[in-house]
Specification:
With 324 residues, the chain is α/β, with parallel strands linked by helices. It has eight helices and 17 strands.
């Protein structure tokens, strides 16, 4: 597979490594001479490291887009119209309106587009999903998720759109239900015009999920808890562990007792998430099949982001049906 990687920033460097490991014939495009030089040192032939992505388009089968969100609509649209399948890092686009425009391009060109919601491909996610689908824990009551820690803010979108969005998509995938409403509190403490702290209660039908994203808490948190009637699942994406706790409340007469059951820790194993999702993208391109995270999934996650912003601004619960 001949692939053009557009964007060689911090995350683009990881894509460069993984695409090489997957055996792709690589072209790269970046406006920075320093970043192109990095790619050449990593093994990309100098003739395939270009400043203008258009110079590479005739030579490749697919495009991997790892650039700021405000460039996604224009770049992906041009690549799709040139007949190239596209992998687009999340968020799909800067706004839901742009996402709808890109959805129209995907439909008209009939090309493969996959959105980089990487948490779907983490081994922890598959373990959680399998456990929920097995029904052993009973009905899911609620979920929590944290993507937080002290770090440098992203400069193109707010923290809800870059970090909270991971869980918006993750819970939709794990629970098998679409989000229906959002109640959110967002803050811009750094005064950049973008949120840097977000607390979002996202409803997936009858199941609420409480999601924290922010740049201030000490440490690094990439975890979630899914509480069921018969057991609780605690997943840690950093350690790749899932704790299964058979805790439940038991009624005795008019009283309820909190009964702590057995606790098990499972180590989730599997391929590197980025490698797994990019391989599935390449397979979809080769087989002309649907991608595992299509443009509609990327657009839905964006609609949750915008519902969160509306909720925080209006100080009320916002239905997804209200969002265009």
């Amino acid at each position: 597979m001949k692939v053009l990687l557009i964007g060689l920033g911090r995350w683009g460097e990881k894509h460069l490594r993984v695409l090489g490991e997957l055996g792709c014939e690589l072209w790269v495009a970046d406006v920075s001479p320093e970043r192109r030089a990095f790619a050449v040192r990593a093994g990309v032939p100098e003739t395939r490291a270009v400043a203008d992505f258009r110079a590479a388009l005739p030579h490749v089968d697919a495009v991997d887009l790892v650039t700021p969100a405000d460039s996604h609509l224009a770049l992906a649209s041009e690549c799709l119209r040139a007949g190239k399948d596209c992998f687009v890092e999340k968020p799909l686009t800067l706004t839901a309106a742009e996402g709808r425009a890109l959805t129209d391009v995907v439909r008209s060109t009939k090309r493969v587009l996959q959105v980089g919601h990487i948490f779907r491909f983490h081994p922890v996610t598959q373990l959680l999903r399998d456990r929920i689908q097995s029904g052993t824990g009973g009905r899911v009551r609620y979920c929590t998720g944290r993507f937080a820690g002290f770090k440098r803010p992203r400069t193109d979108v707010g923290v809800t759109q870059t970090d909270g969005i991971h869980y918006f998509d993750l819970f939709a995938y794990v629970l098998g239900q679409k989000p229906t409403a959002v109640t959110a509190t967002l803050r811009d403490f750094l005064g950049r015009g973008m949120d840097d702290l977000g607390f979002c209660a996202v409803e997936y039908g009858e199941i609420p999920a409480f999601i924290e994203a922010g740049y201030f808490a000490p440490g690094t948190y990439r975890d979630c808890v899914i509480v069921g009637e018969q057991e609780t699942l605690a997943g840690d994406f950093g350690t790749a562990e899932v704790k299964v706790l058979a805790n439940r409340h038991v009624q005795q007469g008019d009283a309820w007792n909190a009964r702590e059951g057995a606790a098990e820790t499972h180590k989730a194993s599997g391929p590197e998430p980025l490698s797994h999702e990019l391989k599935l993208f390449l397979d979809a391109c080769a087989q002309r099949s649907e991608s595992p995270v299509d443009v509609e999934a990327g657009l839905l996650a964006l609609r949750v982001v915008e519902a969160a912003h509306r909720s925080s601004k209006l100080h009320r619960r916002v239905l997804l049906s209200e969002m265009c």
